[in-house]
Every structure is written in C-alpha cells, then in structure tokens.
## 1
Amino acid sequence: MRILVACEESQAVTKELRKLRHDAYSNDIVECSGGHPEWHIQKGTLEILNDGWDMIIAFPPCTYLSNAGACRLYPTKGNIDEERYKKGLKGKEFFMAILNADCPKIAVENPVSSLAFEMPKCTQEIQPYHFGHPFSKKTRLWLKGLPELKYTNVVEKEGTFLPSSTSKNAYTGLNDKKTRDPKEASKTFLGIAKAMANQWGGYEEIAKDMYYKYKELCPVKYSFMWGQCSNEYKEAWIAEARIFCLLT
Ligand SMILES: C[S@@+](CC[C@H](N)C(=O)[O-])C[C@H]1O[C@@H](n2cnc3c(N)ncnc32)[C@H](O)[C@@H]1O
C-alpha cells in the first residue's frame, strides 16, 4: 500500500510499515530523525493529503488542543485566553482536514483535548502500558476503515509518562530529559508503532483488500462480509497476501 504517516518526524511507524514492504512515507515540516530521509516528505501535510494514499496515519500537533494545557487556556477561572483559543481552533481545523481526507483508511492520533474545542468522539483510547511500555499517557484514536488496535503486551503501569502538576507519581525511571523535551516526549512508542503497522498494514489487512478487489465490492459498505468468512477462507487469502508481498 502507498501509506502516508503524517506529522511524523521520528519515522517510528514508517519504518515498521517498510519492514512489511509497504510504500510508506513519513511527513513533517521538520527534518526526520529516524535515519531515512529517502522516505521522508518534508512539507506541510495539507499539501500532500489528497495525493491518492491507500492509508493515512497521522499524529497532528496537540499543543493548543490538549487538555494538559487547559490551565493556560483558562488563566483565571471562567476567563478564556482568546489567542490560545484561536490557535486551538486552527489545530482542530488541521485535525479535521486529515480526518476528512479522501482516503479509505484513516487513523488520527491525539491526546485528550480540552472540552472547549468540541472534538468529535474518538473511536478508541489506548495507553503505552497496553503495548509493553510501563507508563500511562492516555492517547485517543479516530479511525475510519480500520479496526481498533488490539493490545499486544499489557504490562504493569509504573507511573505517568509525562510529569504533571496533578500527578504525584510521574515515572522517575525515565530519562528526565526525554520527558521534558516536548519533541522527544511526542515520539511514538515503539510498541504502539509496531501494533499500528502490524495490525493496519499486516497481511490480514492486505488479504482483506485483495478479497474486496476480487469481489469488486466496496470494503466500507460491505465491511461485514470479511467478518463472515470462515477462518480457513481468511487464512487462504492471508497466504495469498504473503505470496503477493514476496513477489512485489
Ligand atoms: C505531536 S508531534 C507527533 C510526533 C510523532 N509522534 C513522531 O513520532 O514523530 C506533531 C508533529 O507534527 C509536526 N507538524 C506541525 N505542523 C505540521 C504540518 N502543517 N504539516 C506536517 N507536520 C506538522 C511537528 O513538527 C511535530 O513533529
């Protein structure tokens, strides 16, 4: 699949998708830090959003939308910081443009946002400790044409990932520099990146696409049909998908 991983400078998800032989590209306004500039499109996401991608996974900025910044949005009780609110609305516009892009499979990730921005209802909430990292950092996913992520490795939570004024048990084992540097702290956890790539770009998803193409049916309108196939039938398509990936 041709996949756009928008607002991703770390290339965490892009590299996992490349391992599965997808034609995946990270995209960010800044240079990539993941070591593969040949897979990086350094441009604003909106410039390339509707370029015929088969799947878009996006991590749009949350600085002004996030609930963690609520105390700055309301510097005094009942009074909203108008400048900050306008910036938040711009952030929401960007987020919605990605969520409403012309693409059959879309996943947008963001933390819990301030109620002031009336964000659409998310599909799922996940935590790093569901994917092998012993921290909490509640993350929301808005999904279109993609299944909810299944937890891959649920581990004991040792504390919150990001220090916060309300949390007394912020994780202390992590390199402090990492949690204080917003760029470092916003990089996608490896366990989550692997789950996204394997579950949304793995052989079963490719098999599903091949099945719907073969049946000449719309995968969104007839999404129930794959679910109704027997396991043996699905396995046969998954084997086809593996061969297809080996040959292309
Ligand atoms: C919350 S961080 C996500 C980082 C991501 N999880 C990763 O592992 O690289 C948001 C990213 O969006 C990028 N960004 C901001 N505005 C953008 C735009 N208009 N187009 C593309 N990327 C943008 C920022 O540079 C930042 O790297």
## 2
Amino acid sequence: MISRLLRYKNTLLFGGAAVWGLTLVSCVMVNRTIIMPPQVPGATFVGSKNCVECHQGITAAFADATHAKLQAPGENAKNIGCESCHGPGSVHSKKGSGYTNIVNPGKNPEMCFQCHLDKRGEFALPHAHPMGKVTCTDCHDPHKGDAIVSGGTQLAAANETCLKCHSAQRGPYVFEHEALRENCTTCHNPHGTVNDKMLKARNQTLCLQCHYQQQTVGGQLWIGGRDHAAFVQRGTCWTAGCHEAVHGSHVNSSLRF
Ligand code: HEC
Ligand code: HEC
Ligand code: HEC
Ligand code: HEC
Ligand code: HEC
Ligand code: HEC
Ligand code: HEC
C-alpha cells in the first residue's frame, strides 16, 4: 500500500490512496481528501443513519457535528460520519451488539492521529498536555457540535473546558485580567508549543498583541502610559517581578502577587 500525505486546510491527513477515499462536504466547501478510518475485517460502510435505530442518544446530537460531514465517495456515497472513527459497521449493525465487531477508541488518541497527523506533532513538542493523563476527548466531544467549543456566546464554555481541571485559574479575583474574558487559547496552545507552559510566545510579544506599544525616539517603549524600556530587559512581563499574576490578582491592579 502506498501512503501519502495531503495538506487539507490546516489538517494533515494520512491515507492509502488505493484503499480509502473520503470526501468532506460542507456548505462552505466541497473538497476531496484522502484519509484513513479504522478498519474492521469483513465489514463495509453502512452510513450513520443505520446507527440511529440503536444509538438514538448519540446520533441525535451528531447531525451538525463536523465529523458528520465525512462521506464516502462514489455514486452510492454514504454519510459515514460515525464510521470514520468506529470503522465500517455492517457486521456490528446486523448482529445488533457485540464488542468485537466495532472499534471503540476509548481514550486512545491513536485513532484521531490517523487523520489529524499534525496533532501528533504538536503533542510531541517540549511543552504539551501529557497524553495518558489528558486525551483528545477531555476537550473535544466527538459526538456533538463543532468539536471545538468556541465562538460567540460559547467563549465562556470554552474556558470552562480548561477550568474543570485548572481550578486555580478560575478566580474570582479582586483584580481581574480582562484577557481571560476572551479565551485561554489567546495565550496557550493546549496541544503543545516549544515554550514553557504551552505559551504561544516566549516574550512580551504574548502581551503586546493587546497592549498597545508605542515605540518613540530615544529607545523608549511605552506600554500602559509608562516607559517600559528598562523593565523588559529584566525578563518577560510575567517573570521580571512586575506582572506575575497574569490570570488575575488579589492584591494589585497591575497584576502583581
Ligand atoms: C470523531 C470520532 C468519533 C465519531 C465521528 C463518532 N464517535 Fe463514537 N466514540 C468516539 C470515541 C473517542 C469514543 C470513546 C469515548 C470514551 O470512551 O471516552 C466513542 C464512543 C462511542 C460509543 C460507546 C458508548 C459511549 O458513549 O462511550 C458509542 C455507542 C458510539 N461512540 C457511537 C457513535 C455513533 C452512533 C456515532 C455517529 C452518530 C459516533 N459514535 C461518532 C469517537 C467518535
Ligand atoms: C441493531 C442495534 C445496533 C445497531 C444498528 C448499531 N449498534 Fe452499536 N451497539 C449495539 C449494542 C447493543 C451495543 C452494546 C453496548 C450497549 O448496550 O450500548 C453496541 C455498542 C457499540 C459501541 C461500543 C462498543 C464497545 O466496544 O464498547 C460502538 C462504538 C457502537 N456500538 C457503534 C455503532 C455504530 C457506529 C453503528 C452504526 C454503523 C452502530 N453501533 C449500530 C447495538 C447496535
Ligand atoms: C477519518 C478521519 C478522521 C478521524 C478518525 C478524526 N477526524 Fe477530526 N476531522 C476530520 C476532518 C476531515 C475534519 C475537518 C478538517 C478541517 O476542516 O480542517 C476534522 C475536524 C476536526 C476538528 C475541528 C472541528 C471543527 O468544528 O472545526 C476537531 C476538533 C477534530 N476533528 C477532532 C478529532 C478528534 C478528537 C478525533 C478522535 C476522537 C478525530 N477528530 C478523528 C477527520 C477525522
Ligand atoms: C487540553 C484541551 C485539548 C486537548 C487535550 C486536545 N485539544 Fe484539540 N483543541 C483544543 C482547543 C481549545 C482548540 C481550539 C483552538 C483555538 O481556538 O485556537 C482545539 C482545536 C483542535 C482542532 C482544530 C484546529 C486545529 O488546530 O487544527 C483539531 C483538529 C484538534 N483540536 C484535534 C485534537 C486532537 C486530535 C487531540 C488529541 C490528540 C486534541 N485536539 C486534544 C483543546 C484541546
Ligand atoms: C482533563 C484535565 C485537563 C484539561 C481539560 C485541561 N488540562 Fe491543562 N493540564 C492538565 C494536566 C494533567 C497538566 C500537567 C500538569 C503537570 O504535569 O503538573 C496540564 C498542564 C497545563 C499547563 C502547563 C502547566 C505547567 O505548570 O507547566 C497549561 C498552561 C495548561 N494545562 C493549560 C490548559 C488549557 C488552556 C486548557 C483548556 C484548553 C487545559 N489546560 C485543559 C490537565 C488538563
Ligand atoms: C494573557 C495571557 C494568558 C491567558 C489569557 C491565560 N494564561 Fe495561563 N499563563 C499565562 C502565562 C504568561 C503563564 C506563565 C506564568 C509563569 O510562568 O509564571 C501562564 C501559566 C498557566 C498555567 C501554569 C500554572 C501557573 O499559573 O503558572 C496554567 C495551568 C494556565 N496558565 C492555565 C490557564 C487557563 C486555564 C486559562 C484560561 C482560563 C489561561 N491560563 C489563560 C498567560 C495566560
Ligand atoms: C487578549 C488581550 C490581552 C492580552 C493577550 C493581554 N492582556 Fe493585559 N489586559 C487586557 C485588557 C482588556 C485589560 C484591561 C484594560 C487595560 O487596562 O488596558 C488588561 C489589563 C492588564 C493590566 C492592568 C493594567 C492596569 O494597571 O490597569 C496588566 C498589568 C496587564 N494587562 C498585563 C498583561 C500581561 C503581562 C500580559 C501578557 C502575559 C497581558 N496583559 C496580555 C487584555 C490583554
């Protein structure tokens, strides 16, 4: 089998071209891509509709999920959403039960990596969530919605995902940092980065995305109404002894401890 890599939007997909061809169809795009769902010996794809009969709970909420849009190609194109992660379900569906004839990935990220190859790379970076203690489904519900809880009114819900494990960052703080009203991912990439604490940037660049910086003559660096030129030489904004309480402070409005 000849394997190859395809870059699909921001996702690297892996597959044996001769074996599987799936198409992701959505209202904004029609794109062809080659990916590799799990396999079940002797079984063929039957389509997500087939699963409804016995798994109503899961299928009901699945309709608008990103993965529900995965389809097998060809004239008899089937909506294979469920089977893209659980493998072809003909044998399982016919028998109406059985724990051996369908794939249950459980907490194992390998199945996800098969299509999201770039995520394997991110989790291998020096600072990442420890796989084993934390897994994909702790943050992504594979059976519901966008698989990413974010956007619009869901921002609070997105942070909630993080706060269920990181209660120390929850507050409430006497002096809040408004940056946390946005998303934890403004500053952290939860899949992993090269920087300590999974930060997206290792220096003041992280903070200057929002805090206007005025570079004036004479090497001055104006942030928040003060010349910071001498301060930034002492370290990052949060290690130089100035704004250690980046998530919020109980003692100081300038986010000191
Ligand atoms: C993006 C991948 C993915 C898709 C698509 C998907 N599932 Fe799952 N499913 C999983 C994972 C991962 C688990 C294991 C969850 C766990 O153990 O934490 C699971 C578990 C299950 C289980 C075991 C019971 C349970 O809740 O733990 C059933 C039944 C199931 N899925 C049915 C379905 C059906 C039906 C569909 C389509 C409507 C579907 N799945 C679509 C990934 C997926
Ligand atoms: C005729 C009924 C029936 C149909 C159709 C059916 N299932 Fe199941 N499935 C079951 C039963 C019964 C179980 C045993 C566990 C339970 O009671 O939830 C099960 C278990 C599962 C599990 C968990 C297996 C494990 O090892 O934990 C998954 C995943 C699953 N089904 C996926 C699917 C998918 C995907 C489809 C559609 C392709 C499908 N099922 C269609 C009846 C069915
Ligand atoms: C058969 C291939 C396949 C498998 C297996 C798979 N995915 Fe996906 N997934 C896709 C494709 C294709 C997309 C859409 C890619 C895009 O828009 O860039 C996608 C999109 C996503 C998104 C973005 C959703 C959004 O709404 O933008 C997340 C999150 C995701 N997958 C998580 C997972 C997780 C977690 C697993 C394992 C439980 C998994 N995927 C398993 C193919 C797969
Ligand atoms: C600690 C929580 C967390 C874990 C664990 C996690 N993710 Fe994510 N993931 C997120 C968040 C939050 C986003 C949205 C990122 C953003 O908005 O910048 C996301 C976005 C994504 C996306 C879509 C955007 C992109 O970066 O391509 C995919 C695909 C994805 N995750 C797959 C996975 C897979 C596969 C795993 C397991 C190997 C996984 N994630 C584990 C939190 C997590
Ligand atoms: C299922 C629980 C869980 C979820 C959900 C979770 N984390 Fe974590 N997080 C952990 C664990 C476990 C560690 C490793 C802690 C350690 O080794 O001390 C960690 C480590 C971290 C670290 C590095 C801490 C350090 O001291 O180096 C950051 C930053 C972080 N997580 C941010 C996030 C963000 C942002 C989210 C939401 C997108 C999130 N986490 C969701 C469990 C979780
Ligand atoms: C404005 C940027 C920013 C935002 C937003 C942000 N963090 Fe952080 N976070 C940081 C910085 C900077 C550090 C490193 C602090 C240090 O090393 O002293 C950090 C460190 C952490 C740590 C490691 C423990 C610690 O306190 O040092 C965890 C866990 C963490 N953040 C979780 C979160 C969670 C959960 C959210 C969302 C509720 C979040 N962060 C939002 C900038 C941010
Ligand atoms: C997502 C945007 C955003 C990011 C990123 C961000 N901040 Fe903020 N920060 C704000 C907002 C909004 C306020 C409240 C309005 C203001 O005072 O400018 C604020 C307020 C502050 C204050 C209080 C100012 C005062 O005394 O009133 C400090 C100190 C601060 N931020 C430091 C940091 C540091 C350090 C970082 C990097 C780790 C950072 N910020 C990253 C948005 C952000």
## 3
Amino acid sequence: MESLTDLQRNLLDYRRNLYKPTPVQTVVEWSEANLRLTARQTEHPGPFSTSVRPYTREPMECWKDTSVSEVTLCWGSQTSKTTTLMAGLAWLIANEPSPALWLMPTENLARSFSKSRWLPMLEDSPAMLECFPAEADKITNLEQNFTRSTLTFVGSNSPANLASRPVRVLIADEVDKFAEATAKEADALDLAEQRLKSFSSSKAFMTSTPTVVEGRIWQRFLRGDQRRFYLPCPHCREYIRLEWRQVTWEDHKTEDGKHDLSKIRASAHYVCQLCQGKITDAHKVAALRHGRWIPENPGALPGVRSYHLSSLYSPDRKCTWGHLAVSFIEAKQSMGGLQGFINGNLAEPWEQQDVQQERPETSVEVKLDGGRRYLTADVQAVAPFLWWVCREWKDGNSTLIAAGHADDFAALRRVQIALEVHDMDVGIDSGFNTQAVYDACGAYSTITSNPITYPCGLRYPPEGGLRKPMIIGWLPLKGRETGARFTAQSGTVHPFGLSTSSSMRTDVVQPLLVFDTEHLRDMLSRLRKGDIDREWGVCPTPPVLEAEGAYLANQELYWRHLDSHQLRPVANRAGRIKHVWTKRNQKWPDHLHDCEIMQLAMVMLWNDLVQASET
Ligand SMILES: [Zn+2]
C-alpha cells in the first residue's frame, strides 16, 4: 500500500474528526453547567445541582434516552419533582428543540407557575437566553415561541385549549388533581396524549402525589417498570428501601397527657430493617449519594418507566425523621386524618377498608362523668315510625346510652324525659314527612324573640336580625349529599349549617340544621376506627327504659344498622373512579346509623366534639 501524501493525511484527519463523536454532556451535566436558580426561585440560590438529590439524576436522563417513551414520577412532597421536570425541559429546548405541552390542574395554576418559577429560571440562566426570540411578545405566560421550539401551558379545566397541533413532549404535572371529564368535555390527559401520536419519538412525563389506588398516578406507576430507590445502610452496607414503619421515636407525653412533640422530634430515627442499626438524618443524606433505582416490574412494556419516591428520601429540612414523625402524629389527630400524610409524604394511595373484620368498638366501654346527652331520631313511612339513638358526650368522648325505636313522637318524648335529655338537644330528621316533623319540633319548643349564637359560632337567624319570633327546642335536621359546606360569621367552614325550615306556620321562624352527609359518614367511620383521638363506645350499664310505646334495640341490631354503609369505588361516565359511601344492599337497615350521623351534627353545633388540637 502506497504511503499517503501530506495532503491526503490531512484530509483523512479532517474526515476522522468530522465523524469522531464530540464529548456529549448528559442531561444532568448540561443542567448543572447551564441552569441557575436565583433567590426568586429557591431558598438556596446558585447553579442547579443534583448533589443533594441524586435520585433525580436517572429520571433526568430519560429526557435524552431514545428508548424511553413514558416517565411517571409518583413522588411525595418536598422531593423536587417539579424542579426536576423544569431542568429536563430546559435541556430539551436548548438541545433538542421540539414542540412541548405542559398540562397542569388549572389554567390559573399554570399561568402563575410559568410566571413565577419557569420563566425566571430561564431568564436567570445565560445559556437559555439564546433560545429567546427577539420579539418579546412571542413569550407569554401560557404560549412561548422560542427560537426553535414552542411550549404551551394548559389547565386540565380548559381542555378546549388543547388545540389539535401535535407535540412531541407532554408534561402532565399533579395529574391526580386534574379535572374530571364531563359529559361535555373529554378528559384533558387523554386529549393531550392524542396529540403525541404524530411523533414516533414522543415522550410523556407524568407526576403527582397519589390519591387513591384507582387514581391516575398510581395506575400509571403500576403500568411502568416500578423503580424504587435503594440506599446502602451505613451499618450493614446492604441496600434497603426506606419504609415508614422503620421510623421510630419515643412517645413522650407532657403532664397534661398530650404528645410532647419536641421530644418526639428529637428522638425520631430510622431503624435498618436488616441489621436494626440506627440511621440518622445525616446518615440518610450521605447514603443518598450511593443510592440506586431498581426496577421491580419485569412485565412493563419497554420504555415505560415509573419511579416511586416517598418524602422519606427528601433531604429537605421538613423531611427529617423528626419532622415526619410529628407530621404523622398531627395528621392522626386532625379531622382531615391520615390520608394527607399517606398521600403527600409516603406517596402511597389511600386504601379504604372494606367490611370491618373485627369490630374494636363493641368492646370499648366508655365511662363519662357528667356529660351531655343528645337524642336523635329518624322518621319512617312504615312502622316502626321512629328510630332513635341517645348518646352522652363530654370533651368529644362519647358513650351510647341507648338506641331503639318508638311508635310516635309522643313515645319519643317519653324516651327523652326518661333519659333526661334537654329539649334543645333533640334532633329529628326531616327528610321524610317533613311537615309532620316541623310540627312535632314546634310542639316541643319555646318561642323567643332573641337571636341565638351557638357555641360553634353559627347564628340563627344567619342574617342576624329577627323579623319574626323564633321557636327553639327540638331541632329538625336535613342531610345533603356531598360537598355541602357552610361558612360561619367568623369565616370558619363547617360540614353543617343553619337554615330556616319551610314550615307552614307563618307566625314564627324555625331553624333547620343542614349537614353534609358524606363528610359526617367519614367522621363516624373514623371515630369508630379510633382514627380520631376521641373515645367513641358504649355505656357499660345500659338503662332500663320506662317509656310507653318505645323499645330498646339489642346490641346486635344496633351494630347491624351501624355497618350498613361501605366505601365502594364507583365509576362515572368517563370511567374515572371515586370512592363513595353506599348501602350494602337496599334492604339492609341503616336508621340507627343515620341517627349516629345526626348526633355528630348536633354535637358539633354545640361544640361538644371540638376539633382535636393540632399541636
Ligand atoms: Zn443495616
């Protein structure tokens, strides 16, 4: 073979250089070199960095990885999932310009996110300024025409704005908060995914903290390859997954019997599930650097990645073992319950219990000293005409005195007197035979010309002035389905409120207590399960009832009524699923259950079931 001339050699070198791969930055390397977060964005301004959150690295590389088509981040709060998406999208705009769509729960949220977080990050990062067009009006909060790519922000509540223009990349953020599809409007996520179909190299990124098992994000997570993050234990060096049940603390109590939160915060730590070694917050942050994602669903379709990450992994100061322990205790005691903690911090869906396998409350005998008794009754069309429950309350704890049925209102009156219940502590359901209930309530009432302010803050009449005398005594009640909320003068929102009965009497006005049935069903269920920090049980010694025309129900019948409703998943027309309380079957009796719900409305009106303290 002839030796090459200098010219030929130079040419060859030139061509080799042409085809030599240039050193390629990963998405993380590019982002760390080019993106800046200023004080407008974060408490820790400076170059974008993954060093304290190494778990964001692998998901970020999915932006570039051509084998990945779908990425689901089912992550807890304080895990930086949105910042991770922002960095990936900035990489895309600068390196692989493509039409993109960012879908958020509402348009307002999208606008404010774009204005306060997204655009400031681009403006503060010099490398991104090259992507901005000369004409300033090409970049608005919702429509951004960069030099070589476009980005549109849309709210799931305005799917009409999802024009037919195709996109290569879809980001759907907080998908479990997206608006439900209606008969008129299709599901926004479905519409958005339709728009990806024109690109064979399309990518979809979905994130959310989960809600229920049937929710969007959990279903997406299950469909993907289910990656979870494993860390080396600093003691046994084995790779472990952080799990809430391994977080432990000493449950100190203060002198008045409350949890001593500062001591709990200080003592909380993680116990390695393999070697029982104590893992501190500092250990965690160090171990994160050596963590790795491991897929656990070999059955996933190729390219469909899903990542689960609880807030236990977050290096944020709100996610130390101590802070999480205190959040857990506070959530358990609050009326909102544990669902927020399980969804938000553990990133797990809320699983509803079905039929109670064991009934802890049957054995719960609650003794009260000097409580207040309430009598509530449910009116029927056929005999027995009235079902009633009498329960005594003190400081939110309560005990069932007696439950049963009665032939008529006069017999119920005898029950009231026998059980020593005040007129104003009797509540009757007015949903059926309404006028008869109003009349009976009027018969056991007194007339007054003074407005009344209940201890919960509600006033009657609500508007203040009293134009006619009012009658006050036995109180008619009416349940409303889902979503009824009532705001008191003070601004406090209650699941119940006061309105005026539509009694045919014209000489007086009569208050009507309305309540949100679903909300109170949830509360009753949580009181029974012990999820609310109050005792709810039965009286150790039921009374002998001497009231003509009235009868006691035995315990078995009482509990059968109480178990009449269960939470069931129900699909709407668009196939989305919600949990709603439903009767086990049409014939299952539920009157005493309804009486117990009315007890809660009455007791809250009189502030005898005060909200558990948040501290
Ligand atoms: Zn260990």
## 4
Amino acid sequence: MKTFDELTLSAEVAQAVRELGFAAPTPIQAQALPVLLGAPTDFIGQAATGTGKTAAFGLPLVESADPQDKTVQAVVLCPTRELALQVCGQLNLFGKHKRVRALPIYGGAGYGEQLEGLRRHPAVVVGTPGRLIDHIERGSLSLAGVRTVVLDEADEMISMGFKEDLEKILKAVPRERGRIWLFSATMSKEVRRVAETYLRHPKQAQVNASERLSATVDQVYYVVPERDKPAVLVRLIELADEFYGLIFCQTKSLVMDLTQFLTEQGFRADSLHGDKSQDDRERTLRAFRERKTNILVGTDVASRGLDVKDLTHVVNYSLPRETEVYIHRIGRTARSGRAGLAISLTAPSHRALVNRIEHATKSRMTEGKIPGRREVALKKVARLLARFLDQPQHAKAAGLLGPEWGRAAKDMTLEEILGRFIAMTAPELFDEREKTLPAYQPSAHAPAHPHAPRSAHPHPQHRAPHHGGRKPYWKKKDRG
Ligand SMILES: Nc1ncnc2c1ncn2[C@@H]1O[C@H](COP(=O)(O)OP(=O)(O)OP(=O)(O)O)[C@@H](O)[C@H]1O
Ligand SMILES: [Mg+2]
C-alpha cells in the first residue's frame, strides 16, 4: 500500500489525513491500516519510535466510531498523563470532520471537567488506567458499549505496575464484541503473557530487533566521571549548532538540581517530573513545545510516546540499565524521518552498558571526545557572525557613543577593532587556565565546582547552588 487513497477511508477521515499533511502511510500504517479497517480482530503492532503508530490505530478507531451513538465506543490506555493528552489531541484531529470526539481522562486533573466531558457523550476516551478505573467505579463511565480497547505503550503500563488495573478494564469490556489492540516500539515477555491471556488469535505487525531504533538517529556516548557531567553537558549544548532537546535523569532530585544548574548558567531550561502539579507539568510541556524553553530536563515520565516536533537532541545524563528505556528515550528525537542526535554520558565504571545496549539494539554507538573549552569558544565565535550582521539598531547604538570612543578607535585598523570585539565577547579563548585544567577528561584535576571554569558566560554565577539540606547534584550518584 503506497497511498492513503488505496484504503477504505471515509471522505471525512481522508480529508483529516490530507489536512495533517500525511502524504504516504508509514510502514506500520501500511501494514496495520488494511487489517484494522477490515473485519474486527485483535492486533499487536510493534514498530520503531516515531513511525506513526498513533495514526495506525487512531484512524481505524475513528473510522469505526459512530458519532450518533451516545455510548463510549473505544478506550485508549496510556502510561502517562501527557501521552493521554497528546493521543487524545491526535484522535480529535483524525475525527474532526466525522465529528467523532475523544475525551482525555487522567489523574492529577480535576474531576469536574472530566464528569462534564463524560456527560457530553464522547465516542472515545483516552486515559491513564488509575483515573479510568475511578470513573468506572463511581459509575460515571461505562465501558458496556466499548468495541475497541487500545493499549498504547502496553509493555510500559505493565512494567509500571498497572497490570491489575489493565485487567480490570479489559474485564469491564464486553468481550464477545470487543477487540484489543496493543502497540509499542518494544514488547516485553510480560506483555506477551497478558496478550496470550486476553487476546484472541491476534494479527501482528512486527519489526525485528535491528529496526527498533529510528533509522535516522545518531548515537554518541562520552565517558565522564559523575562530577564532571554538568560541565561536559554545558559544553556539548554550547557546541551544538542548534539544541532543542530533552535531557533524561534517573531521579526527580537530579532533574531538579540539573535544571537549576542549567538555568543559572543562562539556559532556557525547565523540568518535567512526577512531583510537579499536573497544571505545572502541562504548562511546562506546552512552553517546551512552543520553544519558549529549548531544554527540558525530565525523568522517564517524558520518555514514552511524547511527540515533540523536531527535537534535535536527546541526552541520557546517565545510561539506563534497561535497553527498553534507552530505546524510548532516544526515540523522542529523529522522528518521522528527521535526523536527531542521541548523546549519552556514562561514568567510567558503567561503560559496559554501552556494549549491552549496542548488542540489544544491533546498532553502533560512537565514543565522542569531550570538546575543550577553546573548541567550544571557537564555535561560539563562528556563530557570532550571523548575530553581528543581524543588528538593525547598529546606527542608533553608534549614536550613543561619546567622542572618547572615536578618539580611542581613530588609529585602530579594522582588524584590531574586530579582534577587540571578539576578545571581549569570548575571553575564554585566551584563558590561560585551560592549560592547567584538562578538567573534563577522567583525571584527578577536575575542578571543585563543575561550572567554575565558565568565566565568560553571559550570566556568570560562580557560586555553588544551594539545595537546602540536600547533597549538591554533582555529588549524587546517578545510575550508569
Ligand atoms: N503517514 C505519515 N506521514 C507523515 N507524518 C506522519 C505520518 N504518520 C504519522 N506522522 C507523524 O509522525 C510523528 C510520530 O508519530 P507517532 O507519535 O504516532 O509515533 P509512534 O510510532 O507512536 O512513536 P512512539 O513509539 O515514540 O510512541 C507524529 O508527529 C505524526 O503526526
Ligand atoms: Mg506512540
């Protein structure tokens, strides 16, 4: 199947697909759509991150829903609130012209709005398991009319301990009419056991292990002692021509500390983790999607399914032990055919994890050389030219200069003036300390404070951040 026209889509849904700008189906869509648009069947779909699994189940879901029917006809289960919201948004786009409405139901949000939404008879409900069960038990949601249940990121919901909740929901759906679809880039043994229990002769579309990663992602790792990680991270961000990325940490406290550190360094960074209020989480993600911030530091709450357009980087502050976690994290970049760079920092003692991941994903990670401060500074200078040229206020600025400026520059050559400008803007180029501070190579000479050598940053904060009674982040152990 090469085009969407070859499918039996209704005019309304076909129109929605056109408006989304989807030219041709992705491989998983080409495999799944003809099956799921046909006779009812259970289904397992496994394909790499960012390859359009949402539409692979979403289009048939909307197509099978009857907008006149006042019952909830389909349920989509997601492991995180943000993902439920995102998938719900996608379904509403697919169902826009057919007037099939989806409602998000997830924890942390008020009940009032959800009850109100349920009273307006959505055809599809997209939610996290806990809150859905709350509504079922309160009697505000009935699954008696449900014909399709989709488990997006099925394996994650099981490893998060939602297995019993899932089973409760599956049992609330009349099985004689219902069908169950499982989707994820990874499938654990555990999820296969659930599938064996609840799915009947499922049809499958599966990619092999070597295709679980996006084909367009580059993977680089740097061996960095724990205490040097913040400074190395800053160098890598500054070295990038563009950095719009997610940085994953293993713990919430590390997320908070690293965000604070990056903010103090003048970066537009924010954090996403489970200790934030739901309102805050949503505000943060919205600002990141709108590029008001360009760095989002998060726990694995941000690792599954999130589709943020055109992320240039994903950073593993430490390598995760589980290959699945690695696959989903780095899958936030290099989506739908775009290029993306996955950077992993690993402590020397955890270097073996690199081989393990390479082996499991049948892919290569290259070892990166930690850039020196001079290299970073040269890159910054190279980027200055564009900014230098783009100064519409230069005439006004010149008008502000007193006569002493003219006198001072009178005998200078153009070269000298430009040289002074660069030296003033990037003094770290000539910082003698570089010689005595190999610093970010695994060595005994690492600086006491990870950000101490960054003397030329526009927002210098040369003091160690305070963290109440907590240990500062660079002394904490992160896994890997
Ligand atoms: N046929 C298509 N043509 C172009 N873009 C598409 C197509 N299908 C989906 N997309 C876009 O590709 C992006 C990734 O899709 P989606 O989020 O469904 O991926 P996924 O396979 O679910 O990934 P993950 O495993 O990370 O959840 C989305 O922005 C989506 O709009
Ligand atoms: Mg997905």
